[in-house]
Structures
1.
Amino acid sequence: MDTRKIAVVASVAAVALALSGCSTGSAEGQGNSPSAVSKMSPAPDSTTKNPSPSKNNTYRPASPEGPAENVPVPKLPALAKEYSEDGAASFSKFYFDLVNYAIETNNAGPIKKVTTKECIVCGVSIIDEATEAKKLGKWHVGGKHHPKILDSYISGENLAVVTVEYTADKAEIYLVPNEPDSKMDKLEPTTVAVGLEFDHGWKVYRIIGAE
Amino acid sequence: MKLQSSNKLTMLIAFCVSIPAVLGMQAPIDPANKEDHGIRMLPESIYEDHDKKENFNYKVKPQNPQPKKQRPRDASPKEKFSIRDYESCDPNTSNARFCRSIPEERTCPDGSAPIYRQVLDAQGRVVRQYRYCPGEPPKIELPKETLTQEIIIDINKFKEYPIIPSKIISNPTKFSLKNGNTHFMATEEVQSFSSSLSGSKIRIKAIPIQWNWNYGDGTTRNLNFPGEPAPNHTLRDETPTSHSYSETGKFKVEVTTLYRGEFSVDGGPWQAIPGQAAVASTPIEIDVWRTEKELIAND
């Protein structure tokens, strides 16, 4: 095929791409709309389909119509500031609250503050993904992580290792309202060892899966 | 030259995907590996190919692929490691020091809980973690001299001790009736052993914590109690450990007892051994008959 034809097809494709958003996700009008699971009770006006921001500051979970709004920033529990096994465990739970916050808001600022650059898994699977989603204007519906702390111990000076088993809800990712762009299946129980270091507070330096 | 419409469609799709790359946009999905990704904690991401993530903030250094059965990283022989075993535990039955939640992960083939072995460097930073079942060989071989502390007793060493299985007692003993409540129980016995290791005297305790029943008719049940004698029991009476067969026939009844272990070195404090030893009992056979009449109580 010669270059002219390529150019023609390419320009047609580019137009088609621009118009359709090149969505290769599942078809519109899916049967099951995933529920955005949230600890807070939904605001009274969350069932309306109006995508415009709520006038007051009530939390509204994400939906196929639009991203979550007025998501409160998770607050560090007092116990999570302690240099102890319980403190490390509480902090690890809090860390997952920050993961869920990043999923809802694409804001990786809070989680970055308590993650060191050494943590590749944190960077690649959470922080960079959130940054990319923010750049592209994508939002997640669902995908919430549910952690269980299985074990916690002080492994060395100012160091702790916390074993966490977590699941993640299935998620749909949207670029355009009501058109799922991609999806992630529910994640079965997964166990990781979270490496934490303490310096006036805990930070995650590593997350390791089980081989 | 006219293209076939299906060819056109194929090409359109192909360009639809490749054009964004050409234009410098990031395609939401890489069709080559058809992987949907989003914000999710995925420990495996550490092993993925990172070439396509160049735009990101984290400059990922290519990880040295870590072959199994070797030391965790390019370590000089002087580098020291320590090992910590942790078992996925049930706070109702476990003595583990920190056990707050019941994990959902699948059990090992022998019915016991899988064990996580964490490898720590000399400072105490976690380096590797792997999951294994009792009886399996370790996935990472660490030469003895690199360990800061010899593993005194782990689950595999514990399993080498001659732990005696429970005995199954049933009432009635060899036969039963269809739809009758056949009472089963198992014996429960804490066992002690001693041995010496590297010049130290080691005492071991094996404590039964769970009885996994298989009634031979396709049903199984896991209980954290063995059952009690029921001397006045009749087939009409259900007990906490009885089973009712809905078909006639000969059924092989088995129980596997899970023992947790503790050890003490030279009379020191008892320390828990992560994991459980699954010990299978000798099966018994129950011959189930039917009766046309109603169950008759043993007068």
2.
Amino acid sequence: MTEELNMGLNALWVMLAAILVLLMQGGFILLESGSTRMKNAGHVAGKTIFTLGLASLVYWAVGYGLAFGGEASDALNKFIGLGNFFFTPDIASVDNGLPNSVFFVFQLAFAAVSLSIAWGGFAERAKLSSYLIFTLIFVSVIYPVVAHWIWGGGWLAADGAQDFAGSTVVHLTGAIGALAATILLKPRIGRFNKDGSANVILGHNQVYTALSVLLLWVGWFGFNAGSTIAIGDGFFGFVAFNTQLGAAAGAVAAMLISWLVNGKADITAMLNGALAGLVAITASCAFVDPWAAVVIGLVAGVLVFFSAKFFEKIKVDDPIFALSVHGAAGIWGTLANGLFATEELSAKVGVGQAGLFQGGGWGQLWVQFESVAVCGAFAFAASFIVLWVVKKAIGFRVTEEQEIIGLDLSEHGSYGYPEQMKKAGTNA
Amino acid sequence: MGTSSRNRLLLDIASAGDPESLRVARERVMKALEPELYSLPAVTEIVTLNELHDALIARALVLAEKEVARLGYGAPPVPYAYMLYGSGGRYEQTMHSDQDSGLVYGDTASEDDGEKNRRYFLLLADKVVQYLILLGYPPCDGNVITSNPEWCLSLAGWIRKIDHWIDDPDWENVRYLLIAADGRAVYGDKELADRLRDRFYHDMLDHPSIAQRMLDNTLRHKILVGVFGQLLTERYGEDTGSLDIKYGAYIPMVNAIRLLALQAGVRETSTLRRIEALRMAHLLSEEEAEEAEEAFVLFMRLRMLASVSEANGQWSGSGKVPAARLTKEMIAPLKKALRVGVKLQKKVQKELQRGFGGR
């Protein structure tokens, strides 16, 4: 009886977390459309829902099996899972374990978040067809492979890689997809001048962007605290606690650093800082003391500011700041685990060791570095190849004319903001 | 530029018999000064340029008077003074400054005469503004210009206006007071202008709260140096890497010095002369005055330089020093000057906390 009650409560919590993570797609819709121009708003928002649908089918058919299928031989399982393709879950809990239907929905929501992060590199100039093809490959192979290595009993898990809720698995993998895309697409028209200077292409609605950060922030409690997969002894509360501190420190640090460096407190930088704090604390939220969560968030907030400057300097167009927010902060968060993870919490979670500053020596930091490097390299190579083939075979970027009139019209035939865009058209 | 070429230009201007020849004279002025402005111009060049601007405007008035007389309206019925505001008022015009101007004329006893005078001077104002546009002085965006009836008034009218501004110091009126503070007569009866300024300073000293309002009105423009001492340059667009010397250095400095001068009852309108007067009055120490002067001269020279676009010698007036001009040798003194500006702004704020006229 008690066990059944426990199972029910655990299932309820993980299901709630899955719903929260799914709702983060609303955050991505507002983040991406708010940060881009009006003429692309309908496309940017709508394609998120379309690819969420497609990703769900692909993950059900293939992705989940490669990430978590238990039928591979021990040797093969180091690299990839097998089984559970076209997954049919049990209709109820088996032996009072977490129902695998709930686990699937939770994991699917993570895969979809990673995919939506990658869209940051596609924004405002990729053909709709490229979204379709990339979803197929990313959700069936690229993301599941990384997830398997770290979470599905793969070789990095065996090495003790600690990535509690996915600074690397979800965020870095998505950001690397964005990087490959933005390199192949090249910058948007008008982003850089011939003399090498940059222009700012302002998003059309800063309120959307701010609201998106709040949605993501709240959703993140499902993301991180839900990753305990159980209510158990109440540990999920501690994880949520650290998550809040990391996000808060990121927002504050980014606002202050932009103020100090640019002379004006920059809203976009601050919003990126909050997200960077969340991304960075994701790997470590179950492994570190609260003070370390604050340090991780503060560093992430400063890092994301300079990272955005860096990408602009090397003329990589990153419209939604995905490379800095999810990439740079994802790497930092993963490495920070190797610095700040405590012995007690590492033992509790039961994957790896304590970090460098907690008397654990260099071992854990090395494993963290290894996971970042290997996963980053794999995700980049795979994404680059897929998108390179797309580019050669059917073309990756819309024509100049289509880009100028906007993807709402070129890809879908109607504007997200019909009145405003018609007005703009008659003025031109 | 040598004295002889300056005198030749002044002679050209004084002998121009019609607006078209005056326009040619102005072109000659521009051509003569252009090469000096490509390099960092010295203060003497800026002084010379302002003398020449004054002479051009004065000559335009002589021609306008003649034209109005030719149209049958006779000579000016009462004495008047033609006022310059803004950079013209401060003797700090660049090659392509706007017209910021006003006109004050003598009072009459009868109302009929008053109306007649009003019509005469508005006509004169229209003429001279037209001539100056022809000469290449664009009208002021903010409509602070003699042809605007609000800026072309009898002495009594002006006094009423200044009193009104001071009694009702909303944002707009405080802006006008700030403009009026830099006003000076460029032509005509200087005594009229002095009487107007007497009233202005008298009112200001009677209303210490105005200074605080003035400060609030001018804090918007930040000096472009960051907390780490870094230059805050343009981050995007064609002007990437350039420094907005006009609004990020020159104007904040003008504002700070103006406030100190007003507070001390200093009546000079040129920023450099204000600094000097503040030094004489011991309101700036020798060291502060020297620093401030050095910083301001650098800003003024850079602003002059920024008014020339490198590519084709057009007067672009961006007010921004191009990145290419911000050489290593330039950056160190510039940073130092900007820090002096920040220090001065802080001093002004502190002085105001102690209360206007409260010493």
